[in-house]
Amino acid sequence: MASVCAFIAARLRAWDVDRVFGVPGRHIDPLVTALPGERTPPEFIHARHEESATLMACAHAKLTGRAGCCLASPGSGALHLLGGLYDAALDRPPVVAVVGREPPSPVSTAGRRCPSPGAPPCRQPLPSR
Predict the structure, then answer these.
(1) How confident is the model at residue 91, as a pLDDT?
(2) 37-50 residues labelled b (16+ CB within 10 A) or e (exposed)
(3) CA dist., res. 117 & res. 122, Å (int)
């Protein structure tokens, strides 16, 4: 069974993506290492910031007519992609944005511990009126 990163890398090759712009991070490093798996891998270009990676992908798509791709870590990295994606939305070049996913935390958002796998889900108390 292939990993999700190998599937995404194969899909980028199928879409004829030749360059991937991004900032390496803990949550997207498996994808960066999965890119050089075939004969014609997409070239990974290290950017200094997520927004510049998105603008580079947008400019690449505008100048070549091929899909531009940018990578970002979850959280603030994904937020920094918005400036370049807004530019891409206005000019309509084909841009693919791939954002990593943080593993789920064992602590729920309310501060209570989530049950172990197989246990019934936590019930959140209703707010008192």
Answers:
(1) 92
(2) eeeebbebeebeeb
(3) 12
Residue at 44: amino acid letter? F
What does the chain look like in DSSP terms, one character per residue? ---HHHHHHHHHHHTT--EEEE---TTTHHHHHHGGGSSSPPEEEE-SSHHHHHHHHHHHHHHHSSPEEEEE-TTHHHHHTHHHHHHHHHH---EEEEE--PPPPSB-TTSPBPPPTTSPPPPPPPPP-
Q: For the domain 18-99, what is the CATH code?
A: 3.40.50.970
Q: Provide the pLDDT for residue 103.
A: 75
- The tokens describing 106, both together, are 């064992």
Each residue of 3-47: pLDDT tens digit?
888 899 989 999 999 999 999 888 899 899 888 877 778 899 999
pTM value? Answer: 0.77
